[in-house]
Fold this protein.
Amino acid sequence: MRFTILFALSVVLISSVPAFAQQHDSKVVSRAYGDSEFRLGPDDVVEVTVYQDKSLDRTVPVRPDGKISLPLIGEMPASGKTATDLQKEIALRLKQFVADPTVTVVVKEVNSPKVSVLGEVKNPGMYKIKDRATLLDAIALAGGLTEYAKRNKIVVIRTDTNGPPHQFKLNINDQIKGSSTEPFYVLPYDKIYIQ
């Protein structure tokens, strides 16, 4: 009896995995990079100014580990934060050294939003993307498809901060002809592989 229940439960679980994977893979995310407030990432450059204390002013890059270094404060995380979030955190940390600090953070250079385009494209590599970049834009940055590219076998791997990577299987002809309801927007750190 116990064996029968275990067997039935395992069959149900195994048979539901492909259905979930198909739904998950074909789901197209309509949000685009640039639709929400910008969040800092590695290689971005910020200018930090402290009102009436020029000795604390700095223009600093966000390091690959996601941190910045500032006088008095030392190292602090910056990646994933908005300029306003970072501004508040710097002011809070400076309070132990400066009376009522007024801090301003300005994003001077946006260098972090990049995608990797790999496989059957003319120039595989990592490319900076702009607001509302689509799959077609990313492929164009890589010089377009090679003559051997399989237009119906494009995989976008998207790493989410809250879980495992998601895979989207796409057909570029659907994007070109507009048969998809919306364009597929790429997000920073997407990996696009063309077979």
Residues 27-35+113-194 form a domain with the Outer membrane lipoprotein wza fold like fold (CATH 3.10.560.10). Residues 2-26 form the longest helix (25 residues). Confidence is low (pLDDT under 50) at residues 1-28. The helical segments are 2-26, 83-94, 135-141, 172-177.
